[in-house]
Queue: 2 jobs
Job 1
Amino acid sequence: MSLLPVEDAIAAILRRVPQPVAEEVGLAEANGRVLLAPVVASHNQPPFDASAMDGYAVRAGDVAPGRKLHVVGTSQAGAGFGGTLNPGEAVRIFTGAPVPAGADTVIMQEEAVVAGNLVSFTAPARLGHSIRPLGNDFRAGDELVKTGAVLTPMQIAVAAAANAAALTVARRPRIALLATGDELVPPGSPLGPDQIVASNSAGLHALLSPYAQGVTDHGIARDTREDLSQKLTEVFAEEPDVVVTTGGASVGDHDIVQDILIQLGVSIDFWRINMRPGKPLMFGTRGRTIVFGLPGNPVSAIVTALVFIRPALRKWLGASEQETWRLPLAGPTPPNTARRHFMRGQLVQTKIGPRVMPVSQTDSGHTSSLAGSDLLIVQPENDPGQPTGSIVVVLPIAGF
């Protein structure tokens, strides 16, 4: 069986992803959610000409060296001056307060000399200075946050400023994790002979949680048909939207995950990808549930999740397409094989801007080198290797 190209595998996965389903959440629950309906302003902000500082609202033409104006009232936030400013008058004003009708500038209090109810100024007036005009921030009907945005605190703040109490976001899928392998023990366990600590589920839980309504870790299944079948039956009984297994996706004598999945009604779309690390990636469906069978090696599991599961979840949520980064190399890359290589890389800051330094370690079980990486350098098939300074495509490891 030939190896499936990476692009074909991604396309096959995305065809199986359902359309986003909308739900409303309050602003306090909206951070990190994907917006499915734009935030549109229902009013002007500010809704009136507002002072940008504490001082005096005046007519610019009334201000001259030594000339004193009569202070006829006060305008403060929430309690504006109710009258109209006449020639020769000034109004004491505070930041955020409405600028009185008739005034066309604000002079800061540090430039004012007050004597009783009279005020003069040590600086000339500048027409329109320190006034935030009506609608200066946004106007009614403006689209403030676009559909597909992953909501940030500042976008939530502008939604609140636009008087939105709730936002329409994508409902997130429920994800189930299952690790497989006789050699695995949970983190924190004493290590016996021939045992290793199971790290895949911990890393995948952290990676996938921002996209999920919940991530359930179903623990470790042993390399027996009975235990694996029982564990997977329990997983499917909870009807998750996405199932992710790690280990047992290759072709060895003990790699029985695919057989058990088929017995439990999973239709396998493919199971070998032309890439490294992570060739033995399996993908299929069971009813409305999407199933990923990731390799057991820790670096392979995380890399395949970044390359295949993350785009699937972004589409599931209606997120805008992830931008491709291009950066110059801070060091050379070696020649590649016939399989696309997702090479570990570190983001470095130089005097001429950011660059990516290739990590020479390629072992698919070498977790510390992946932990020290910021990016994956996408090295094409049969690439002869690139010199320092060449522009390469990279995938960020962190982020949504």
Job 2
Amino acid sequence: MTTISIDDIIDLGRHSSLTTTVLADWAERGTPKQREYLHGLLTAEVESRHISRRHRLLRAAKLPTLKTLDGYDWTAIHFPTDYGKQPLMDLEFIDRAQDLVLYGDVGTGKTHLAIALAAAACNQGYRAKYFTTAGLVIHLRRAKDDHRLDKELAILARQHLLILDEFGYLPIDAEGARLLFQVITDGYEQRNLIITTNLEFARWGTIFGDDTMAAAVIDRIVHHGRLLQFRGESYRVKHALMK
């Protein structure tokens, strides 16, 4: 009798793509105990693939650090009257193609929440990308200079969720404003956007250097968007070693 080694099984598995016909045939032939073993094997394979996909998505998201919602302090957030913590944690905004604007005081948890939501989205199988707003503009400008802008915009278009952190923290020139405007407007009703900012809507014209352009962006975001307002003392100042 030929002995089949573990390596033989692994090698064959790497070259196999099971079909319904093969699965049904071998399941029909097997005893209840053998079917139980086969079911366990396939369950483990499916879970392994899901874990691998989650890891790939998290790496591709380029999160600056990994954050979760475990133990997150929600006290600084003022939610809209028709919205709350649970639907946010359930990622309902992604399924409903809704944008989020996290607006308010520095150090109150806006970036933490944005990153944690992006990580949760990746764990649920969604594609996400994180950028600081200035970082995205630099990324797109380099792509344009290298004649790769269309390719980079196509990559962004495939994302389910795009994080724009520190919106309005650094000045953007006219070309950068046009690139940023293109990303936001191209994603209207196509992907979800989370923006963190300490600038109220009335001051967004200073980001784009053009009130009309800012008004067009705001119009799209508020149409399918939620505004979460953050108020309170900076967490970093509160827990700073330097007093």
